[in-house]
Amino acid sequence: MVSALIGSFISAMATVLGALPLLFVKKLSEKWKDILVAFTAGIMVSATTFGLIPQALEESSLWILTIGLLVGIIVLDMIEKNVPHIDVERYKSVKQFDTKSLLVIIALIIHNIPEGLSTGFSYASVNDGLGPMIAIAIGAQNIPEGLILAVFLIQSSVSKLRAILIVTVTGLVEVISAIIGYFAASYISWLIGFGLSFAAGAMLFIVYKELIPETHGHGFERPATYSFIIGLILMIYISYFFG
């Protein structure tokens, strides 16, 4: 339980880490943003392929894996369809913190719940190395997410310190949902395999629907591709050393 709490907290606070550069710089170049997001995508694909899916098969069955994957994808799809999405380019003209900004924050909080559950399910697994590995993957994804949210808030006339505070609150939601996922999987044995599969589906949806398209619209596809591969290889090494 303590490991799950620490891992989920570090993963969640990676959101704040992503926002911190805006205290010192005004903006991040499109090229480096694409490289960072692609690197994150590589990490998440690797963690899903070499961590979540094999462990879900080991702890359950092919049917549960299939159902969990599909449910994870569908849930994330419903979230994407029914809540606002942060589009920094579209809202560059926003000059005040309005209802739209509040809805975007709520959307990100809802979006963070499945990520926290993923971490909790992973720590409940019999594979002791899976929890830290998934926490690293989710944390890597949280860094550009925190950066994008902070940029959006600052463009909505929110002070930098207040933006960091809001980003922190959205990250803490992951800690709460991770604890819920950990206890739920600990008391309902079959839920571990399903939860790991759910996490895999959710992460794959995020990668293919959000991260990869985001890196292929600004003319930096080639460096982003190399960054994706480096992220994937790095997570293979992390997976190997965590066993």
Automatic annotation (TrEMBL):
Regions that span the bilayer: 6-24, 36-56, 62-80, 101-124, 130-154, 161-184, 190-212, 224-242
Pfam families on file: Zip
Compartment list: Cell membrane
Membrane topology type: Multi-pass membrane protein
InterPro entries from the UniProt entry: ZIP
Principal location: membrane
Keywords from the UniProt entry: Cell membrane, Membrane, Transmembrane, Transmembrane helix, Zinc
Similarity comment: Belongs to the ZIP transporter (TC 2.A.5) family.
Protein name as annotated: ZIP family metal transporter
Organism name: Paenibacillus septentrionalis
